[in-house]
Amino acid sequence: MAHVDDIYEIEPDLSGEGLTVGVVVSRFNQPVCEALLAACLAELERLGVSRDDMSVVSVPGALEIPPALRKLAGTGQFRALVALGAVIRGETYHFEVVSDQSAQGIMRVQLDSGVPIANGVLTTENDEQAEARMHVKGAEAARVAVEMANLFQAIEDERD
């Protein structure tokens, strides 16, 4: 924590050493989701998270991500969670329902559980947009999970 003019500032910390991270990945739009997962796991490892401290579960689609996150958060075993999926616009209103409800569910689990969750669920207009973003979004989600786990820990440590 940095001291700036009598204000304490918690610096971003991207060290994943010793962190346990759970990942929930959707199988719908599978090629995109597999790329999201590969990028996320590679980035977690690059940040210092041990493969032994990573757990991955898959679910059928984006609407099933929040309940799986809730179960993982409830175990008390994870310092951070990551949600990965791809919702690609089709010809019906279903895109809006799935996108909105998935994002709301992820946020609700995060707020209710107190476990930080990186939302790496892509919502795109077409396959090309999803493919262009999948590697970046997967790695970004890993960085968010690590940074937020460390931020939450720093806040807890400051309270002690």
Task: Bin the helical content.
Answer: 40-55%
Overall mean pLDDT: 95
> Number of DSSP helices?
4
Task: State Rg.
Answer: 16 Å
Strand content: 15-25%
- Report the major sheet: 4 strands, parallel
Can you describe what's shown?
The longest helix has 33 residues, at 127-159. Helix 1 (30-46) packs parallel to helix 4 and helix 2 (65-74) runs parallel beside helix 3. The protein has helices at residues 30-46, 65-74, 94-113, 127-159, and strands spanning 2-4, 7-9, 21-26, 54-59, 80-88, 117-124. It contains 4 helices and 6 strands; from the N terminus they run E-E-E-H-E-H-E-H-E-H. The chain is 50% helix and 22% strand. It has 160 residues and is an alpha/beta fold. The strands form 2 sheets. Strands 4-3-5-6 form a 4-stranded parallel beta sheet, sandwiched between helices. It has a two-stranded antiparallel sheet with strand order 1-2. 40% of the residues are buried.
List keywords for this structure.
160 residues, four-stranded parallel β-sheet, 50% helix, alpha/beta, two-stranded antiparallel sheet, globular, 4 helices
